[in-house]
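User: hey, got a sec? need alpha-galactosidase folded
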Amino acid sequence: MAEVSENRRLRVNMGINPEDFSWILERHDAFHCPEVIMTYSACGLGDMSRDLHRLMRMQLMPKRWREELCPILINTWEAQYFNVNHENVIELAREASKADIEMIVLDDGWFGERNDASSSLGDWYVNKAKFPFGIEGLAREIEALGMKFGIWLEPEMVNYDSQLHRNHPDWSLHVPTRHRTTGRNQFVLDFSRKDVREYIFQQLYELLRSAPISYVKWDMNRHLTEVFSQHLAPDRQGEVAHRFIMGVYEVLGRITTAFPDILFETCSGGGGRFDAGMLYYSPQIWTSDNTDAVSRAFIQYGTSLVYPVRSMGAHISTVPNHQTYRMATLKTRTIMAMMGTFGFEMDPRHWTEEEMLEVRASVSMYKRFAKLINYGDLFRLWSPFDSDSMAWMHVAPDKQEAIVFAVNIRREVGRLNPLLQLGGLAPNMMYSVEELLPGTLARNMQTGTIEKTAQAVYQYGRVLAVSGTSLMNAGIPIKFIFDSDSACFHVYARASF
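Assistant: Yep! Here you go:
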């Protein structure tokens, strides 16, 4: 907690939340408090963020993944939800491979008797009715398409309707004398218990060694309630919540050590557990289950205050969006996904020929600029919380190039378009400003209507030559004509003057 006193002194309280926490420390025992990351900047939030981004990328994230980019993946969730099987996953992968997407992730619905959210969490064995060739057979066939394979898990949870709960009803957090409450039809496993942790580790170990799996999405879809362990004495129940998360860290540490070449992405109903502790084990976290492009402008902007873009899971999803029913152009959805790890939550079997070409172009563009986006210095330019638009840019450490993203949130007809002042460039350097991802909509100047065009629509129609000083002080005009319109520019050095 941070607060500024009446005499303008900042007081910061850090550490374990004392509510419902206690710890009995026996003689000669030690208790290790959580570590805290701090930084200081006299140059505002932007400089503070860049310090934190570098610290997390270079010191906190797993060494194995600090210099390696996330593969461009497509996830089955919004395409199929629980209705996955061998045939439709292969169909999705086959179509996705045509767009040069590099990995397919099998999300929820592949295990136990899982056909909806009411059963089978904890039963981490393949549903042979859906996947008769097992996970290995599926993964091998996907490999034959030239793609990698990933899988979804929720190791900390158990359903009432599961073999695990029937065999071990005492393994979930609950107060024995009270009715157990569920969230998303599930209970929380008691990870403060060594026997629970060992069982889950062995389940995960056997699964991950059984097939060529390159990626794991580790999810957690409910809050901890009734935080009571039957394994601990009544006077030690204040230790359960802390022991739980330390148990999660232990299992994550063991499984990532056993499989160092598997990329882990953690998740908690989206970004519910987006923190430095998780980044120590997984270099990326699913930022939100809300994949709407406009919502993501707010979500990813706020997340970027502390966490680097490399860590922010972000995917292009279909329209109308499944969470907000909002429409946005494929260009805008692409730009928002590029402001993160860049992937897909779509069904490529339904793409038109035009959409397939557009997706392939966006995949190619992301691969071209991925290092700049993930390892460049981030400069936030427009805040969606303070304006009608959101914009930021990634600048190479040597200031030789940058990529700029801008998204309109709300467009008021007749309002003047703003000038976008860039940041982080070399003042005395001449830059070329080239638009990427042109639009396909333009205003008919005779009728005032917005119409789809046969030709690509550019902001300027040519490459601009502008000095760093002019770009950072005067700025460049951005022409937004509709809600969720967007623009993307490559800025690169020409010569000093």
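Quick note: The first helix runs from residue 44 to 60. Let me know if you need anything else on alpha-galactosidase.
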